[in-house]
């Protein structure tokens, strides 16, 4: 009987050692608090040590943010979570270090360029205005940039798109490898080399004079590899199941590419084209060689010298007067706005043409 009673006694669970995975965690406001403390310490250390550059203060604060985050997480949580928080902190610090110079550049450009940027500046050229004198506008350069970039896009975008489609959908063997190799080589070609190539073939051999179209030919050479590479990567992201489903229904391959593959990747393709446009919109060397620059309005890109925004900025900065500096900053602001508007338009087109996912 005594043995039966002993067997019915409840068994108490043994106390186990606390697991490192169940320890406490930092509160949600901890990253913001650590960031504030790091900024304060960075400013204090910079002021005490006599560092005058705010960039140095920011770097000290960034380093302190990572160190304090790791230390606090190691004490409160565990080393595994601390390493995860350090990786997240490094990502945020890298993001801030990349964004701050861009915002600073944009702020300075707006501050300096807004002084002369008005309706008169956008609708008049430099005809009859001396470079060191006040007045004048950017209309002729803006018109030249729009025409040259548009022509370059009309040349490079279809060629780059078709090349990417060939490499992803059809490319096999030595020809595809050769095309890939030359695309990689063209990616690193300096802009002056593209300008010299068009100068030799179009201007000297074919005896064509300076024109906006000549500049567009050089810009298209710089644009093609960017379009090819970006489009190729976007096409590779399209699931093969979509292609197989279309082909299983008896749809020809060319129609599958046109109706299934390209619409699926249209968002990334348009973004790649806009990256290529941004790449060529600020080029100056080919324009100097092939377009020459013109203070007058020339709306014919196929005949006569033209101007462009990058060339106009360089010309105004070269003059060296206060008024020319203001015009250069205003033209730089117009160029930034031009690229931003093109990006917004491209995203709108991509959203409009993208396949609908809802019912």
| Coarse structural class | mainly alpha
In terms of DSSP E residues, the strand content is under 5%
| Poorly predicted spans | 16-22
Element-by-element helix/strand order? HHHHHHHHHHHHHHH
Beta-strand segment tally: 0
Largest sheet: none
Determine the mean pLDDT.
Answer: 86
Classify the oligomer. Answer: single chain
Shape verdict: flat
Helix amount: over 70%
Counting H and I runs of at least 4 residues, what is the number of helices?
Answer: 15
Through-space gap between termini: 73 Å
Return Rg in Å. Answer: 30 Å
Quick recap of the structure?
This protein is mainly α.
Please tell me about this protein's structure.
There is one protein chain. This protein is mainly α and 359 residues long. 73% of the residues lie in helices and 0% in strands. It has helices at residues 2-8, 30-49, 54-76, 79-113, 119-123, 139-170, 174-187, 191-205, 212-236, 240-248, 253-264, 266-281, 285-290, 309-319, 322-353. The model is unreliable at 16-22 (pLDDT under 50).
């Amino acid at each position: 009987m005594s043995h039966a009673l002993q067997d019915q006694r409840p068994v108490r669970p043994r106390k186990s050692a606390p697991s490192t995975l169940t320890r406490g965690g930092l509160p949600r406001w901890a990253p913001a608090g650590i960031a504030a403390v790091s900024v304060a310490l960075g400013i204090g250390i910079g002021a005490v040590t006599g560092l005058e550059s705010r960039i140095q203060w920011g770097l000290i604060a960034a380093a302190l943010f990572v160190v304090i985050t790791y230390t606090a997480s190691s004490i409160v949580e565990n080393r595994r979570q601390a390493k995860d928080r350090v990786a997240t902190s490094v990502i945020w610090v890298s993001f801030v270090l990349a964004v701050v110079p861009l915002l600073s550049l944009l702020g300075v450009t707006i501050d300096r360029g807004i002084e002369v940027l008005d309706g008169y500046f956008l609708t008049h050229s430099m005809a009859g205005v001396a470079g060191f004198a006040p007045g004048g506008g950017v209309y002729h350069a803006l018109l030249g940039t729009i025409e040259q970039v548009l022509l370059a896009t009309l040349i490079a975008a279809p060629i780059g798109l078709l090349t990417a489609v060939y490499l992803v959908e059809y490319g096999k063997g030595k020809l595809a490898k050769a095309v890939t190799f030359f695309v990689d080589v063209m990616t690193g070609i300096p802009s002056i080399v593209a300008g010299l190539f068009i100068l030799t073939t179009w201007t000297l051999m074919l005896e064509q004079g300076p024109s906006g179209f000549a500049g567009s030919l050089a810009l298209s050479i710089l644009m093609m590899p960017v379009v090819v590479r970006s489009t190729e990567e976007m096409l590779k992201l399209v699931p093969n199941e979509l292609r197989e489903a279309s082909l299983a229904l008896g749809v020809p391959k060319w129609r599958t590419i046109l109706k299934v593959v390209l619409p699926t990747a249209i968002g990334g393709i348009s973004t790649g084209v806009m990256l290529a446009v941004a790449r060529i919109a600020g080029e100056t060397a080919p324009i100097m060689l092939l377009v020459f620059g013109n203070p007058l309005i020339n709306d014919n890109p196929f005949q006569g010298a033209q101007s462009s925004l990058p060339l106009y900025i360089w010309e105004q900065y070269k003059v060296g007067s206060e008024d020319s500096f203001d015009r250069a900053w205003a033209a730089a602001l117009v160029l930034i706005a031009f690229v931003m508007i093109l990006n917004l338009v491209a995203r709108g087109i991509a959203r409009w043409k993208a396949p609908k996912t809802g019912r």
